[in-house]
Amino acid sequence: MAMSFLQYGCSVPLARALRSRTFTTASTTVKKAKVLLGLPEEQLQQLALDFGQKSFRGKQLYHLIYKRKVKDIQEFSQLPLAFRNDLEEAGWRVGRSPIHKAVTAADGTIKLLIKLEDNRLVETVGIPVKDKDGSFRLTACVSSQVGCPLRCSFCATGKGGFSRNLKSHEIVEQVLAIEELFQQRVTNVVFMGMGEPMLNMKEVLEAHRCLNKDILIGQRMITISTVGVPNTIKKLASYKLQSTLAVSLHAPNQNLREKIVPSAKSYPLNAIMKDCRGYFLETKRRVSFEYTLLAGVNDSVEHAIELAELLHEWGRGHHVNLIPYNPIDGSEYKRPSKKYVSAFVSALESRKVTASVRQTRGLDASAACGQLRNEFQKSPLLTESINQESHSEVALAS
């Protein structure tokens, strides 16, 4: 995670996290559900044909799911009752989950906890922004995992543990939930919520396709973030998306980065920068770098100078998003003063590195990533068996 209101979500060193995914048993994974949300129009037309309907019924399904955003098959009033019943009897469902909790901040930011089919909770955030020219933007900050298997030292998500990857429709439905609450179209999507998107690339890319082609959000309005997973930046580059890649650095050198981001031991800074240069050459899209400023840790002018030198060494045209730390309970880190933030920005800009400071949003809504979920995960949402599975997953990952 890398927004001022949402800190990156991570949980154990990368190598162990990758191994833990291998040991996840069938009982802890979500079965392949028959979900309509996420299917393109052609597949919905074929589905209608498979049920003995005309292909135009598939077009109607598409309209009901993506335009009218109906949540339940029995509310598909345009379709024959027999077709609706057949779909349900065959195990099909729309794929929308209920909202377990919504918290609204004074600035209009809304954080949601969505209760998934297996009773696990996932966070998503809606951020409304009115620009100076009067235009309105609504950004959905979406999660890609329930929890996160990478333990970034400053992040709340990792403290709640890791449960599983999200399916593509569980990512898409977060955007639809934000639209429903705000009664506005989402204009921007950032994969900066709970989890590491690159550890769930297949489902993230399927969700990206749906958001772009079916929900009609432009690729350039979508940002995929990563703290760095070996080989995945190269793989993502091969798809030549027009979306933004945001890489979370948080430190200008390897030694400091390992202290802040334990997974950095498995993916050295020079290697990740080399892959970022390759990504730019392959896609012609500038990589954005996220940098959470931690008071007294990585926020000095000397750190800024070192960061500028690192970026100039590996390419040109970089942009740095600076995120003053959003405090969380139980963390030893503190938020830097405005004076230190300003000095850091000046040091970068004087060395021809463009930088912006993220506006803090939703501090009064537990909006740092993982905070709201951590408040509720002790509630009796999970069955005894699921609780046991979650504990075994944490044991495997530690």
TrEMBL record:
One of its GO terms (biological process) is tRNA methylation. The keyword Secreted does not apply. Keywords: 4Fe-4S, Cytoplasm, Disulfide bond, Iron, Iron-sulfur, Metal-binding, Methyltransferase, rRNA processing, S-adenosyl-L-methionine, Transferase, tRNA processing. Coiled coil: none annotated. GO terms for molecular function: 4 iron, 4 sulfur cluster binding; metal ion binding; RNA methyltransferase activity. InterPro entries: Aldolase_TIM (IPR013785), Elp3/MiaA/NifB-like_rSAM (IPR006638), Methyltransferase_A (IPR040072), RlmN_N (IPR048641), RNA_MTrfase_RlmN (IPR027492), rRNA_lsu_MTrfase_RlmN/Cfr (IPR004383), rSAM (IPR007197), rSAM_sf (IPR058240). Pfam families: Radical_SAM, RlmN_N. SUPFAM superfamilies: Radical SAM enzymes (SSF102114). Residues 134-364 form the Radical SAM core domain. PROSITE patterns: RADICAL_SAM (PS51918). It comes from the Eukaryota. The keyword Iron-sulfur applies. One of its GO terms (cellular component) is cytoplasm. Its cofactor is [4Fe-4S] cluster. It is found in: Cytoplasm. PANTHER family: 23S RRNA METHYLTRANSFERASE, RADICAL SAM CORE DOMAIN-CONTAINING PROTEIN. This is Radical SAM core domain-containing protein. It comes from Anisodus acutangulus. The lineage of its organism: Eukaryota, Viridiplantae, Streptophyta, Embryophyta, Tracheophyta.
